[in-house]
Structure prediction request, 320 residues.
Amino acid sequence: MSVGHIFVILIPIFFVIILGFLGGHFKVFNPASSKGLNTLVTKFALPAHLFIGITTTSKQTLIDKWPFFMTMFLGIIGFYVILLLVMRLLFKKDLNTSSIFSLNSTQPSFAFMGIPVLGSLFGPAEVAIPIAITGVVVNALLDPIATIVSSVGKKTQAGHDSGHQENLFKLTIHSILHGLREPLACVPLIGVILTLFGFHSPQLLQDSLDQIGDITSGAALFAIGVTIGLNQIKFSANAISISLLKVIALPVLTYLIALMFGLSATDITMAVLLVSFPGSAVAAMIATRFETLEVETASSFVISSVLSLISLPILISILL
Prediction:
């Protein structure tokens, strides 16, 4: 694919992000309305879009995606674990800081950029299952794991060791259930289960869910821009490190894992691009919840978004 063609695909995408940025920068949107946009995309529009994409796919096609799931699992969860160990053992950071740093270096904004970018390259129908798989890995596995590790780190810092085992068990169950309650985790999972049992969405259900699902691309990109516009950038070592790990190191690791599992050229491209998108606003919110690296993670979201203007065209030109 020529560089010119790549930019023809990406320019409309970044145009909408810039519109959102102007809306956030000039205070047309505030943090509350920005959160509303994010909620619309992550809890309604994208889950509806993914559900239809999955339940209009054949059972065999879904089964054939097992290597893709393993690639995303080892790439995303594996990268988080590697960074966690490096931060703890090499840089001697506390468990909570290590977890938040690793989470923000790993979690991509696949929910916002997956459909517009990959859909432009391969068609919306082709990318529903890969995005759904990524959603299950991130929302049902990565976020709960990071939450559990950070919570354990907080408890250790506070010296609350009494009853630790019982509390940790309850925290683990609560975090997993919370992750599965997220529409981006449970709706695709339900769709996968139904499809494996032979369910196929009737036309009326498709038409109904498409009414909300079809707004996914524009609303998601605009929401990214608003979030960037509302955040202030601090060029700290942590913020820059998180951004570079996110847009460079994780895609390289995922590419190697995809080769190991023998994925097709198309699946390799989708897997690498899904993890190479900018850092996730959700991961930054988790940092705020634990009051750890708050400014750094918010800044890395903005920095990685800017870096993606360079990295995405390069990756697409290499992979396609």
